[in-house]
Amino acid sequence: MINQVYRLVAPGMIEVSCTQPDITGKTLLRPVMLSICKADQRYYLGNRSAEALHKKLPMSLIHECVARVVLDPTDTFKKGDIVVPVPNIPTEDDDIIAENYRRSSHFCSSGYDGFLRDYIDLAPDRVVKVPDGIDLRIAAFSELISVAVHAVSRFEKFSHKRKNSIGVWGDGNVGFITALILRAVYPESKILVFGTVYEKLNYFAFADETYHVDSVPKDLKVDHAFECVGGEASKYAVNQIIDHINPEGSVGLMGVSESPVGINTRMVLELGLNLFGSSRSGKADFERTMDILSSDKQIAGYLENLIANEITIRTVKDIHTAFQRDIHTGFGKTVMKWEK
Amino acid sequence: MVFAAIFAGGSGTRMGNIDTPKQYLELGNRPIIIHTIEKFFVNDRIDEIVVLCPKSWVAHTKDLIKKFIPAGKKVTVIPGGKTRNGTLENAISFINENYEVEDDTVLVTHDAVRPFLTHRIITENVDCALKYGACDTVIPATDTIVESGDGKTISNIPDRSKMYQGQTPQSFILKDLENVLLSLTEDEKAVLTDACKIYTLKNKPVHLVEGEVFNIKITYPYDMKVAATLLKGKESDD
Predict the structure, then answer these.
(1) For the segment A322-332, what is each residue's pLDDT rounded down to a tens digit?
(2) Residue A326 burial class via C-beta count within 10 angstroms: exposed 0-12, middle 13-18, buried 19 and up
(3) What domains can you pick out in chain B, each with its CATH number?
(4) Closest in B115, B230, B236 to A21, CB measured
(5) Mean per-residue pLDDT, B34-43
(6) How many contacts, defined by CB atoms under 8 Å, are there between A and B?
(7) Of A199, A253, A283, B11, which has the fewest beta carbons less than 10 angstroms from its beta carbon?
(8) In B, which residues are within 8 Å of A89 by CB distance?
(9) In this complex, which of A1, A17, A80 lies closest to B38 when CB atoms are compared?
């Protein structure tokens, strides 16, 4: 079959490519809605190293998507099923290392084509069914939700059981979703959110407390923390966490930074902190995400507030409009209704 | 119901010395006609597909479909007519004989030799046919169109901003299309080979659907080279 793939060929330039995917043993999906991630924006704007751009482009962007099954010769799914494609594609089995950390795994929209295409062909084990009743605009960014779910799942594995208070540093989309998932998983814990923009912190109404990072009470302590800041500001966030965390706490690092981050390791050692990295997600995280979304309607209600832009895509020009609009959106997600 | 009628009646006389009709030539990993059928096969707005090909190629076409197209949607192969209108009439007769045609039954007609059409083009054809009764897929003309009555001198140069190049699909409410064709005399049928043109002459509106520059018709050997080039480049990696 000839497929149309919309590839970023250079920052700000998208071209149509015609490909012939081998759909033998694959499930064929038609995107319904797609959502723009900050990682996509970094490619679109050219905010990656020249080396990375040279190595990875041309490539179609987008790894957040909800789709409809159009063909499944494997009979795993029914035609018309609403599903989410898992962008992480493992190439080998490993009993110890999770699929999203294997160096051999592929990731759609990072070195491999993302979901900005007319049809998506994936092995059926890379496809997760969306339960009935879930808002498709939210399902569109379930990959991002699964990243938070993955981080929380790792946290469950690594952290000690005292979880009276958990701090989330970062008032962006990742901070919002991570705090929300923590709220759902640990209803008894106090969730504290730390950010830099008062207007954004106001969105975290479900949190027990919110603080501007410049006015955190000196004696405030949390048992554990998540860093959802990324970039150059990661350094300040991680070091502030170290200043406000109780001994033997766990710190989940989720923010992506292009440069190395300086950390107060003396206090990490003294406090016996457990810093763990968390990146992307695997199929099990998508499945847990679907369980959470279908069982906790309140969470879905909060996530709906995260939808900042809804743009219908009929042409490549519309894709540019969506990315441009997303750049100027301070908080929330840009969702593209795919009619291309 | 929505039917796709794929016209594969070309004899290949324009493809240089190659005897095989152009729709059966290999493009990438399969014949052109299969690429085209696949696009309608995976589009959930299309209920059934009718392929109309030269009588002597019916068996071969059926074999190809069996080989490449999975189960899940009915694909029927029948002989086309001697002319484009004849092929269109065969498609309509087949549907009339085998199905109950409703007022909103749509026929999406497409050239087998345009394998690069997109999901959007098909979907918008169905939507437009249902909404307006008839539609044609076009792209804005990029070259200046020159009209010449005698083939020697220019008689007119139309305003390019109003000119479009016709592609396919062309889609219709089936009952309307049948009535329009029935209203033609045999002489008119011989001259009027484009169903949208017939609609226009009968003062029936035909809506425009935006095509794509790459929705090319593979007619000449040069087009095969263009088509092969369109499919080259960095392959999908997954």
Answers:
(1) 999 999 998 99
(2) buried
(3) 2-137+165-231 (3.90.550.10)
(4) B236
(5) 96
(6) 81
(7) A199
(8) 238
(9) A1
Domain ranges in chain A are: 3-141+307-338, 146-277
Measured CA to CA, the distance from residue A163 to residue B119 in angstroms comes to 51
The class level of CATH for A146-277 reads alpha beta
Distance from CA of B150 to the nearest CA of A (A): 40
* A-chain residues near B113 (CB < 8 A): none
Alpha-carbon gap: A133 to the closest alpha carbon of chain B (Å): 22
* Nearest Cα residue to A251 out of A268, A284, A275: A275
ipTM: 0.88
A195: buried, middle or exposed (CB in 10 Å: 19+, 13-18, 0-12)? Answer: buried
Q: Do B119 and A119 touch (CB under 8 A)?
A: yes
Burial profile A288-302: b = 16 or more Cβ within 10 angstroms, e = fewer:
bbbebbeebeebbeb
Q: Is the pLDDT of residue B19 over 90?
A: no
Topology agreement, domain A3-141+307-338 and domain A146-277: no
The second-level CATH assignment, the architecture, of A3-141+307-338 is: Alpha-Beta Complex (3.90)
Q: Kindly list the residues of chain B whose beta carbon comes within 8 Å of any beta carbon in chain A.
A: 28-29, 35, 38-39, 41-44, 70, 72, 115-116, 118-120, 123, 210, 212, 214, 230-231, 233-238
